[in-house]
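Course assignment 3, question 2. Fill in each field.
Student: A.L.
Task: Predict the tertiary structure for the chain below.
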Amino acid sequence: MSERDAAVEAAMELELALLTPKIRSSPDRVGALLHPDFHEFGASGRHWSRAAIIASLAATTGPGSRPVAVSAMRGVQLAPELVHLTYDTEYDGSRAHRSSLWRRTDGRWLLYFHQATPFSERPG
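Answer field:
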């Protein structure tokens, strides 16, 4: 596996972990995966800071929560320290196209930016 493939695989693994209830319900675990300068444009249109997203995930992810369903994940390494992922999610009947930038900082991959855009399938 090349360094490029390894970087994309690492980012994908971490992104998928962030979508599990086990990680989302723990402020410490989420915080360990987010870059200090993290921010997000959510599917609601809201701009989320690092602190706000950590608090929101912990407050809304209960022990019986289901993981977010993911499809069509792809990644590309844009620079030695930067990976871009795109994928679709479905959760509680809502769908979103998602885009994430993972940045290697101090030898660790951290989520630097995330954006979600809602979509619905239109019949043919």
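Instructor remarks: The chain has one domain: 3-119. The mean pLDDT is 92.
Grade: pending
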